[in-house]
Design a protein that fits this description.
46% of the residues lie in helices and 15% in strands. The protein is built from eleven helices and seven strands. Helix 1 crosses helix 2 and helix 2 packs antiparallel against helix 5. The chain is globular, with a radius of gyration of 18 Å. The structure holds S-adenosylmethionine. The site of S-adenosylmethionine has 26 residues, from helix 7 and strand 2.
């Protein structure tokens, strides 16, 4: 209901109805035999790591609910995740990783390998949140030195961003009205507690909104992902740009005592 109300407010009634129809159509395609087979394409990660992050075993009902209120579940591709992590101009141990729309937690597990200070997933579907908790439990048991990790079950629109340097990861989690609301919440958080924030955006459907937003600058990207950051260096107040010099500058700041 909340998504529907926000959608009508954001798009107007007719466009909101069209968006709902498009979502229903997209999810009905999932029933096609060819799509069903494709679901098993993401199993390699789970076999390798003995976890359950695949979408092959999620119920149609859960996917339908998620699609109608947000976006359905797809787990991140490890190779693209790796590219995105390498593009971040940071020292990982200074940053907290937040995955908004974390599903069964694959991105959380992958982020743990990079040595973030701590890792938080935000997922509003209870059954995927529970799967993420179980995956985290297994991962932590097998990797005692892993950073603190948690999955919280809530709507990302209500999430209070921790007042720490953050990498916020988004893999196609929201329709436009929710994306805009969450980005505004992040902007407010940056104003209240100024600190470096990087947005790691996989599946760049709403990148034009980021380009226009004015407080984030693009750091790196391909057709499949983009990294944006808010950081202005402490000395000259310059904005960051993609490039080695700036990369080092942000690193130096990230290393500085706070
Ligand atoms: C494409 S999946 C991404 C899963 C995970 N981040 C990954 O990369 O493996 C998008 C997820 O966002 C969740 N989602 C959609 N809207 C949400 C909201 N408003 N609050 C929290 N989670 C949401 C969906 O339930 C789904 O699990």
């Amino acid at each position: 209901m909340r998504h529907w109300r926000d959608s009508v407010r954001y798009f107007g009634l007719w466009r909101a109805v069209r968006e709902l129809a498009a979502a229903s159509w997209r999810i009905s395609l999932e029933l096609l035999p060819s799509r069903r087979k494709a679901r098993f394409g993401d199993l390699d990660y789970d076999w390798e790591h003995e976890v359950d992050t695949t979408r092959s075993n999620v119920s149609f009902r859960a996917q339908l609910l998620a699609e109608l209120a947000g976006r359905p579940y797809f787990a991140s591709d490890p190779w693209l995740f790796e590219q995105i992590m390498h593009a971040l101009p940071i020292h990982f141990e200074d940053f907290t990783f937040v995955d908004l729309g974390s599903g069964k937690g694959r991105a959380l597990l992958m982020a743990a390998r990079y040595g973030f200070k701590r890792i938080i997933g935000v997922e509003f579907m209870p059954e995927w949140h529970r799967a993420a908790q179980e995956n985290i439990r297994k991962f932590a048991a097998a990797n005692p030195s892993a950073p603190a990790m948690e999955s919280v079950c809530m709507d990302a629109r209500d999430f209070d961003f921790p007042a720490e340097p953050l990498v916020v990861y988004l893999f196609n989690p929201f329709p436009e009205p929710v994306f805009v609301a969450v980005m505004e919440r992040l902007r407010q958080s940056a104003l209240t507690a100024p600190r470096p924030l990087f947005l790691a955006y996989r599946y760049t459907e709403f990148e034009s909104l980021l380009e226009k937003c004015g407080w984030l600058k693009k750091v790196a990207g391909t057709e499949q992902w983009a990294v944006y950051g808010n950081w202005r260096d402490s000395a000259g107040g310059e904005e960051i740009h993609h490039g080695d010099t700036e990369k080092k500058r942000v690193r130096r700041w990230a290393m500085a005592p706070r």
